[in-house]
Amino acid sequence: MISAEAPPLQRTGALIDVMNALPHELRARGHDISVALPFYREIRENPAFEAKHTGVTVDVRVGKKTYIAEYLEGRSASGVQLFLIRCDKFFDRPGIYGEHGKPYEDNAARFSFFCKAALELARRLIPSLQILHVHDWAAALVPVFVRAHHLPFATVLTIHRLAEQGSFWGLDFSLTNLPERFFTLHGIEFFGRLNFLKGGILYADKITTVSEHYRREILMPAGGYGLDQVLRENAQRLTAILHGADYTRWNPASDRLLPAHYDPRTLRGKQMCRKALLGQMKLTPKPRGPVFGMVTRVVEEKGFEILVPLLDRLLCDDVRLIILGEGDPAYETALAVASRKFRTKFAYMRNYDEKLAHLIEAGVDITLIPSRFEPAALSAMYSLKYGALPVARATGGIQEIIQDYDPAADSGYGFLCYEYSTEAFWDAIKRAREIFRDRNVWTTLMKRAMARSFSWDAAAQSYETLYQELVGADDQVAA
Q: Are residues 115 and 190 in the same domain?
């Protein structure tokens, strides 16, 4: 597997969670699997992660310049083999794609290099690889290079976030060193620009995305971010596989990062986590109104354009709110201003902290998910397991994970809104706020939510079937 994000990076994000759980699950099923990712500064400075030099270096041409790729090897916490591609010119930086909400200006060069260096690694590994499974735009040129150079690999592209496509100036095409025939309407050119993700869609043998509802959304103009026509033309190669939650890391009954454990039968530990969270965030423990929380990227796609306008209304009530995440500087500023205005009710933490992320899931009563697009909705799976009932916009994987509460039928365990607007989301919050007053009903919904299970086993089996279609059912699959 080839990805710009994977453990041992310590950040919030669905892609990192997937790259932690899916390779581990496939390895447990007997497959020979490894992961290639850049050797970022964050990984190099992580004292808990040990990487050893392989002694292998390769010259990689990017445009008219040549850079040296150095390969290191390590193991993830779950035992999966990691190959880290080192080139300090490109990856010895504070961020992955950029800093302070601005992308690095040389991202086209950085990730062209990464894709080429990952392929050079794949060509040298023994036993020979059969499948290269690439994730999102930063690795999406790999299938293009495989096709252009007639390399003996089957390729799979998984689209986690279609909105981020790797779109660059047309002149950056020279960095790929591909023949000119690839920079056309039927290649990786898109309205005069170089588009990494379009290349992956066109040239991968199989394309997957992370939920059936998201698959439908990206085939339509409203959710296709311009690539919907390209996806429709290649829909015969596009399948949806609903991803799972990694319950070895996200389970309140065994979570090593929590001050107390709990499960649907014994919920006392959740109240202890709630108290610990409010104390750590220096928020008032009373009155007994609900505690809302979010662990997310602070970007428009996650719904902050409809959330920020209702912060004053929300925080004037007897509630507390905790948000953890970084992203768009404008939204970060708005959250920081609101947190100063409501010091005893609202805490905003920008820098990701894994222990705090787990404590938020365990300590809040309600999770807010106002997303415009929520492809896999892994955060919703975690919230359900921790008994943090979600208020969410019904989009993407949300519709496959959360069932709206219907008091007449006494069914459901979440609160959905179907229109993407501040007022519609506010109505869903008010509905949850009203139900919260009835502790018996709320406890029933919590137990119902915590009983839901979205394991990786089914997703891994679906990927296994996909791989077998590419290499033959009788072959031993190696990813």
A: yes
Given a cut of 90, whether residue 478 has pLDDT beyond it is no
Cα angle at 377 between 387 and 14, to 5 degrees?
Answer: 105
Please tell me whether residues 208 and 278 are part of one structural domain: no
Quote the domain boundaries for residue 338.
268-450
Mean pLDDT confidence for 209-236? 96
Q: State residue 300's pLDDT score.
A: 92
**CATH no. for residue 312?**
3.40.50.2000
pLDDT, tens only, 253-270: 999 999 999 999 999 999
Residue 260 burial by Cβ neighbours in a 10 Å radius (0-12, 13-18, 19+):
middle
User: For 348, left (φ over 0), alpha (ψ -120 to 50), or beta?
Assistant: beta
pLDDT computed for residue 289 by the predictor: 93
**What pLDDT digit, counting tens, does each position of 444-454 carry?**
999 999 999 99
Choose the weakest-confidence range: 86-90, 259-263, 372-376. 372-376
433-470: burial string, b at 16+ Cβ within 10 Å, e else = bebbeeeeebeebbebbbebebebeebbebbbebbeeb
Do residues 463 and 420 share a domain? no
**Rounded distance between C-alpha atoms, residue 163 and residue 235, angstroms:** 18
Using CA atoms, how far apart are residues 165 and 190, in angstroms rounded to an integer? 11
**Spatial distance between the Cα atoms of 278 and 325, rounded to a whole number of angstroms:** 18
- Amino acid residing at 99: E
pLDDT at 477 over 60: no
* Long-range CB contacts for residues 113-116, cutoff 8 Å, separation at least 24: 113/60, 113/62, 113/67, 113/69, 113/87, 114/4, 114/38, 114/85, 114/90, 114/138, 114/139, 115/2, 115/139, 115/140, 115/141, 115/142, 115/145, 116/60, 116/61, 116/62, 116/145
CA distance readout (Å), 203 to 128, 148, 170, 325: 21, 9, 19, 34
In 48-106, which residue ranges form alpha helices assigned H by DSSP?
88-91
| 3-12, 133-142, 217-226: the lowest-pLDDT one | 3-12
Q: Is residue 199 part of a domain?
A: yes
Q: Does residue 314 sit in the same domain as residue 206?
A: no
Same domain, residue pair 222 and 343: no
- Are 387 and 320 in the same domain? yes
Q: Identify whether 478 is part of a domain.
A: no
Percent of the chain with pLDDT over 90: 92
CA distances (Å), origin 72, targets 21, 87, 111, 203, 396: 21, 11, 18, 29, 37
